[in-house]
Amino acid sequence: MHNIQHITPDLVYVGASDRRTALFENVYPIPRGVSYNSYLLLDEKTALLDTADAAVASQFLENVAAALAGRQLDYLIVNHMEPDHAATLADVLLRYPQATLVCTAKAAQMMEQFFGSNISAHQLITVKEGDTLALGRHTLAFAMAPMVHWPEVMVTYDTTDHILFSADAFGTFGALSGNLYADELNFAGEWLNDARRYFINIVGKYGVQVQALLKKAAALDIKMICPLHGPVWRENIEWFVAKHDLWSRYEPEDKAVVIIYGSIYGHTEAAALRLGTLLAGRGVRNIKAYDASRTHASKLVAECFRASHIVLASSTYNNGIFTPMENLLADLKAHCWQNRTVALIENGTWAPQSGKLMRAELEQMKDIRILGDALTLKSALRAEQEEALQALADEIAKSL
Ligand code: FEO
User: Fold this and answer.
1) Largest CA distance in the chain
2) Measured by CB atoms within 10 angstroms of the end CB, which terminus of the chain is less buried, N or C?
3) Which residues line ligand 1 (CB under 6 A)?
């Protein structure tokens, strides 16, 4: 049975949601699932905007057939060639061989890499910035969005109904349950954390390119955003755009403290949590603490982007940084994390090193302000160190 939804009389949602895949891109946990969105425009000509992941292939293909209702497919517009949107491209062309592919030259090249020359030799129009495609009542305009999230990405703007098909931009993790629009959901309460985790981990590295896309989008009259993941935006668009603006400028979203500890037997953890209590005593609210060994790095990275102040507490391990903390720092560096205030706690029973090593990693990132020296524990926090911990809490609270 199909599961299609009309967005307008001639625009149909033909995507599908996936609650079975455990790891998106085989790396990011998606306990709330994910949707792979695809849209069909039914004009004098018909145009399908992107396809879907192999995980939802049968539902997606059934949806396309139902929405076409016997009509032929004239265009298959490929905004993004990543397999979560393009894995079923060959299946669509098998069913609708008369469809003409519309994509960037780079996407055509990737098509050949993924599918071989059978598909790339299909009738295909390559488009560039500002090119248009007339479907009848609707005229589509294409805008390049390189590195949001791959180099071949473009977005498509329906100049007639003022709808932006934004590819990965403005997407989120989270499966859809029937409500297609963000304004029908408790987005700020139930979706924002996943939207941030999606954005930061998928395109957080490409802030400059996201800013370029936001600038292009600002010049358009946008009444609706149809992304490739998550709900469609038709209300409060500026609120969600403002979040992306902050994230892509590497500005903290909240003046807040996040404590992340890598602790082998719990002594580093105890010191980190004591610091949390001392911060609370200084009026700091909404403190969050995470065990780096038990929290997925994608969540930690997203939290480091959200908050202005981060405490990193780590044991020394193999004469280096404790592995989960070492991995987190590598992940933060890979995502161009910057412009934050950090306090450090190190621990080591015979040769504490992790503070010096964490500092060296942080110094390779841009605009990371480290508060004072690392507080050094030798195995465990001693009573006489309370004063030093109080001083660190003072410094963090003062700089908030
Ligand atoms: Fe949702 Fe970059 O693919």
Assistant:
1) 79
2) N
3) 80, 82, 84-85, 149-150, 168, 228-229
- For residue 332, tell me if it sits in a domain: yes
Distance from the CA of 238 to the center of ligand 1, in angstroms? 22
| Domain shared by 187 and 323, yes or no | no
- From ligand 1's centre to the CA of 167, what distance in Å? 7
Parallel, antiparallel, or unpaired for β 28-29 and 23-24?
Answer: antiparallel
Expressed as residue numbers, the domain containing 232 is 5-248
Distance separating alpha carbons of residues 297 and 305, to the nearest angstrom: 12
Residue reference for tokens 């990275």: 301
CATH number at residue 264: 3.40.50.360
- How far does the centroid of ligand 1 lie from the alpha carbon of residue 394, in Å? 43
Give the ligand 1 atom nearest the CA of 167.
Answer: 1
Ligand 1 centre from 308 Cα, in Å? 28
82 Cα: distance to centroid of ligand 1 (angstroms): 6
Tokens encoding 323: 């592995």
Structure token pair of residue 249: 């400028």
Atom index in ligand 1 nearest the CA of residue 203 equals 2
Token reading at 73: 């497919």
Co-location of 148 and 81 in the same domain: yes
pLDDT digits (tens, 9 = 90+) for 27-61: 999 999 999 999 999 999 999 999 999 999 999 99
Q: Report pLDDT digits (tens) over 261-302.
A: 999 999 999 999 999 999 999 999 999 999 999 999 999 999
Atom index in ligand 1 nearest the CA of residue 171 equals 1
63-82 per-position pLDDT tens digit: 999 999 999 999 999 999 99
Q: Which of 248, 274, 303 is the last residue of a domain?
A: 248
Q: Do 79 and 179 belong to one domain?
A: yes
Q: Tell which of 189, 218, 248 closes a domain.
A: 248
Domain count, the chain: 2
Question: Atom 3 in ligand 1: which residue has the minimum CA distance?
Answer: 82
pTM here is: 0.96
> 342: number of CA atoms within 13 Å, CB side?
28
- Tell me the C-alpha distance between 24 and 322, whole Å: 26
